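Task: fold both queries, return tokens.
Query 1:
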Amino acid sequence: MARLINWASSADKDYDMVKINKEVMMDKQLPEVEMVACDICRKEVPKSAAKISEAVDYFAYFCGLECYEKWRDEVKQAETDQK
């Protein structure tokens, strides 16, 4: 029975520490993350994680390689159609 009581008091201490850590974390201001929309699927992604293609007058942002490749293929097709 003594083990169970010691474990319970240990668990209570762990719970209290988690509660304190949560309160401390809530007081901290997290930096704002600049988000951009993928030019293909419009999914919002952090600018720092976005794949970027520099076009003539603007930057195109993509959530991943799949959307980038789709965009690239569409651009190639449009250029082919114009010729």
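Query 1 returned. Query 2:
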Amino acid sequence: MNLKQWKGKQYIKGDVMEKLGPTGKFPRGKMNESDEGELKISIGKNKEGKIILKFGTPVTWIDLDPEDAIAIGQSLIEKALA
């Protein structure tokens, strides 16, 4: 998982701006009937120091494998300490 800073409904990945939200892909298969597929998210920090997770769309639930959960946790800690 490659989490980067957000800007509007896009996030910065290198020099390329990518859209946040659903990709329409199911890279690990469909978990159940309510699974809407892969979701590009971003983690940022605002001027007041609040950590903001942006999903680009309303989200009911997310499924994370252990590696993704660790990546999000590390990114949250990095943003909080920055």
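Both queries returned. Flag for query 2: DSSP finds one helix and seven strands in the chain.
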